[in-house]
Design brief:
Layout (H helix, E strand, L loop, with lengths): L18 H7 L5 H8 L4 H12 L6 H4 L12 H4 L23 E3 L2 E5 L2 E5 L18 H5 L3 H10 L5 E5 L8 H11 L7 E6 L1 H4 L6 H8 L5 E5 L9 H12 L3 E7 L8 H13 L3 E6 L14 H12 L9 E4 L7 E4 L10 E4 L2
Parallel strand pairs: 3-4, 4-5, 5-6, 6-7, 7-8, 8-9
Antiparallel strand pairs: 1-2, 2-3, 9-10, 10-11
Helix pairs in contact: 2-3, 12-13
């Protein structure tokens, strides 16, 4: 039974905003400003307008500084700049491509795989990635004032040994809110592991501050932080500082990427990504095929090409730097692992744990 205080929807106290909150408040939300900062043709912003109204632009300025000025095909820019292609309806691309509504066991609690459940802790993110598989997720229905019901469902199910904090992005919550949430979870005796899925330390490394590290260090469970980085250019000195401090705080760091056309769909880009992650103390974990969410078809890489890329990557990297190529299928008991092309000793696909 949950007995500790739960996070409130009311504003946090009267504490002044932390540095990361001030930086997040300055995030770019206007395509025209983004184009102006990068020295790009303002026509790009006009084209982006309609798509931005459907799913707005949001990107921290520090992430923009890692983009190449004047390059409209910069791999970081392509991940965040709204494009007209998002508005084109494509067969097979759906609002709820992963069937998450059917996996909702309580408001905000997804229970798809045995032994672990995922909590939609917030609908906010530090960056709005254009390929986001939850770009149309009904966050208001899933979480508004209903965390208590979700946590009660976790407490009532002894099969749940691991809770995944997701969103949105759980590190969009203040550290005080995170502390209230994990204080409530301490009363769940069968909880053995905590996992966070977050992109924030990559796009807003200022989020990794003393308060967050103190919270992390005080957690009673082994904690895994699964980062989301798609291109080596995303990793600079500020990100390496953040990942180093998270590791020193006791977290295991993994990374999951999405294979994205025009961004990282080359052997060279994938090799550089794995090597950059390793240099930052992060182990490559999954390389996901695109979730077929409405508005994202222009990012899709065909399955056979993905398998060929993975075979070439396996020839260049040691096994521990090779992410597992996977896809998520609605209703399946686990993610589907996809073998690289030409690996005759392996099945072309096999069920693996999340």
């Amino acid at each position: 039974m949950i007995t500790a205080p739960l996070p409130s929807r009311q504003p946090d106290g009267c504490e002044p905003p932390a540095a990361w909150q001030r930086e997040l408040a300055r995030a770019i939300t206007d395509p025209l400003e983004l184009c102006r900062l990068l020295g790009l043709d303002p026509e790009l912003a006009l084209v982006a307008g309609s798509a931005a109204r459907a799913f707005r632009l949001r990107v921290p300025r520090g992430f923009v500084r890692r983009m190449r000025p004047g390059d409209r095909n910069d791999p970081l820019l392509l991940q965040v700049l709204p494009r007209a292609e998002e508005l084109a309806e494509q067969p097979g691309f759906l609002a709820d491509a992963l069937g998450e509504h059917g996996a909702m066991r309580a408001p905000g609690l997804l229970h798809k795989y045995h032994g672990r459940a995922l909590l939609i802790s917030t609908g906010a993110c530090a960056v709005h990635c254009r390929y986001c598989f939850r770009r149309e997720f009904p966050y208001g229905e899933a979480q508004a004032g209903r965390l208590e019901a979700a946590l009660a469902a976790v407490a009532a199910d002894p099969s749940i040994e691991e809770l995944i904090l997701s969103g949105g992005d759980p590190l969009s919550l203040t550290t005080a809110r995170l502390g209230e949430l994990t204080a409530a979870l301490r009363t769940v005796p069968h909880l053995k592991r905590l996992r966070l899925h977050t992109r924030t330390p990559i796009v807003l490394p200022e989020r990794v501050d003393r308060a967050l590290l103190a919270w992390l260090g005080a957690l009673p469970w082994p904690t895994v932080i699964v980062l989301h980085c798609n291109h080596a250019q995303e990793i600079d000195a500020s990100v390496r500082r953040a990942t180093g401090e998270l590791r020193a705080g006791g977290a295991t760091l993994l990374n999951q990427s999405v294979l994205l056309a025009g961004i990282n769909d080359s052997v060279e880009a994938l090799q550089a990504l794995s090597q950059a992650l390793w240099s930052a103390g992060v182990l490559p974990y999954y390389l996901h095929l695109l979730d077929r969410v409405r508005g994202t078809a222009h990012f899709e890489v065909e399955l056979q090409r993905a398998r060929v890329l993975m075979a070439a990557l396996a020839a260049r990297l040691p096994g521990y730097l090779l992410p597992r190529l996977a896809r998520e299928t609605p209703g399946a008991p686990a993610k589907t692992l996809i073998a690289p092309a030409g690996w005759e000793l392996l099945h072309s696909s096999a069920q693996v744990e999340c």
